[in-house]
Each structure stands twice: as C-alpha cells, then as structure tokens.
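[step 3/7] fold_predict: job queued, chain A
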Amino acid sequence: MGITYYLKSWFSICCLVFLTGSLSHATESGQAQLDQLLEKIQQRVSNTKTVQCEFEQERNLSIFAQPILFSGKMALVRPGKLRWENIDPIPSAMIFAGEKGLRCNDDAEPVHFKLEKDPVMKMVADQIWTWVDGDYAKLQNKYAISLVEDFAIRMTPSTGEFANIITSVTVKFDQQSLQPHTIHIQEAEGDSTIIRFSDYRINEPVPEELFTTCYP
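[step 4/7] structure written:
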C-alpha cells in the first residue's frame, strides 16, 4: 500500500493513544470526573516502567468493501523505547530507541533513521514520549477532550498537525489496569481505525534486542 499509507496509519495510531487535551468542552461535573480519571491514569503511568501487549487492528477504508485486519504486538520501555510490530498478514515493525529509529517491512532491507532528520517520525515519537512521561499539559492547546463513559474519553484535535487528519479519537480504558482497551480513530476523510489491545504485561522484563533488530 506504500510507505505514505503506512506512515499515515502509524501517525494516527500514535497520536490517538497518547494524547489528552483541553477540558473546555466538558460540563462542570463531567470535568471533575474527567480530571479524576486522567489523574488516575497519570499516576498509573508514572509507576509503569515497561508495557507489553497484543493488539488487533481493523482498518476501514472507503475504497474497500471489507475492513483490512492486522494483528501484532507492542513493547515499550520508558522513557525512550517502543516497538510496534505487525505480525499478520504482512510482517512489519517500527522501532524507536532514543533519537534513533528502525523501520522494517517484511523481507526488505531495514531502514535506519534519526529523528532530527525525519520530521514525520519525530512527530510520531513526540506523541509517544508525551504519553510515557504523563505530561498531558503539553498538548492542551491543541486537543479538546470529553468524558463519554466512566472509563472512556473522546479527543478532538482543534489546532496543529492533526486537525486536518483526524476528526476524533475515542479511547476506552480497562477499569482495573487503566491501560487502553479499545481505540477508535475517525479520520476527516471518512476512513477509520479500531485497535483492540489484550494480554497486557506490565513491568515485566523486555528483551533489549526488540529495540535493535527487526525480527529477533
């Protein structure tokens, strides 16, 4: 489908999970509930050193009658390492380790990059680090956020690079772990992505080679 499509999908995925924003659209009581939820999430994030999980991704494109389905796994080590790997149907991986990155596509040669020279990948990385650090205030002027259920929030980009790409991002959290359970990204052009996470392993050891090798 081309690298442009791949990067756009990845870009959407990253901004969706990890962003929070302004509370200006919430009612007074709703804002209090929202504040409490975000505070709990931030406290949980501050005590989380590593995250590993499985995911299923459903990509709905207007040009296709049926959704495109992916499955894969994620590994994250704070503060600066993340691996997002698609396993089926086409193996691929995106790896961030500090200021360096690695892009892997099936049997093709891996592509190494530096964030300082790749503005698209730098924007993706910035969103990930913001979530990992729990510093939601950085983006409060770009996103409006509302509470749609007890453990679900909806984020709407108001300004910045995402405003013309994404209409809304709805995140439902697991009530016990407060990790994302389901993420629904609605794009401005009508396409959408749904990601379902499962089998979380929190603060378990993560092999270092996951951040240095395409397919160890």
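[step 5/7] annotate
The chain is about 25% helix and 40% strand.
Helices lie at 3-18, 28-46, 119-133.
exit 0
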